[in-house]
Amino acid sequence: MNGPRVTPGPVLELALGWFATRALMLWLLAHDSSPLLSGGSVAREVGRLYVHWYGVLEQGSYPVHDTLWQYPPGAGAVLLAPGLVPGLSYVQAFVTLTLAADALIEVALVRAGRRPGRSLLGAALWTGGLPLLLHLPLARYDVQVTALAVLSLLTLTRSPRAGGVLGALGALVKGWPALVLLGTPRGATTRSAWSWAAGAGVVVLGLLSVAFRHPLSFLAEQGGRGVQIESLGGTALNLARHAGWSGRPHYQYGAIELVGPYVPVVAAVSLALTAAAFGLLVLWRVRARRWTEATAADAALCAVLLFTVTSRVISPQYMVWLIGLAAVCLVSRHTGQRPVAVLVLAASALSTVVYPLCYGQVIGGSWAGCLLMLGRNGLLTAAAALSFVRLWRATTAPMVNGRQRTQPCPDSDRLPNRALSIS
Q: Is 308 in contact with 348 (CB distance < 8 Å)?
């Protein structure tokens, strides 16, 4: 039986919406020096820091003893890519490639949404959700990372091998895309996806280690990070300033962090909460009995939300990841994450008010800045909790007459194995 037919109308509207919003984002990036937007701080990262790293990477080495270099080896490939674009400056080429990755996500979501039984809501969320972050996504490489995660999730059903490889590539660029493989169904699908991910990761890491010196230099700098002012722990400490806490904000490790009494304790609590989140996800994986086509994406969004809210660092570009994962969830009509997606959009909009619009208030620790951070992080915490509850209820089989009712997991061996096909 044929599924519902999708007319060209919605697709055309999505395309026009994408071009209009991205043109606005480019205009904002061109006017980044405006005091209202950021006084140049958003574009400064790609215009100065990325360009500096490009020069180091071009010499065949990863940055060493650079407290700002905190990224896995695959990030080097992304930062070198703009140098391959002829006729453009580094910044122009970087923005061009970022827009290309953005367009790739849009096309993938539209193609997936046009399949029978699927929805174009995911493409609509990505089209309208990313501009909530203004021009920030164009000046960070998180769109490229999100593209790998989105493609991994969209290919997992039809090609677990390709999905695993894409997840591994994303993890080598920025770590978190490894979580997209958490929700693969037990059996052949998981074995195929995880084994190909591990194999691809080892091979690519080996190649990068041969091509560049000091590929693991990022580990020393990542471990030294403190409590960023925008994290949940940072919000608590910022509020404590009004109760007489003697700490202060300080720029280090590429972010505004809080230093002073009890900061190590707050950092330790954050790490403990991250470990607890990991334990919850493992428990879910053990107890889950039902998988649908939406489970992998739902689990990925849940996992990234949990690790985000418990992290010592919550940078504004992290919202790009969450918008992308929420968009993949909405492609399937079986997802249970629709209200979570709404909370993610609300948190993204409020995150923009925090940075770049009112970041001075946050750094200064004013009541307005503290309330903004409390609102944004409260929305993220609510989204994480709701996401886990809905994932648990959707996948844990209920008890019927004292016995657990289960549903067999789909067998990936019965699915077409088309490499890099987008479902």
A: no
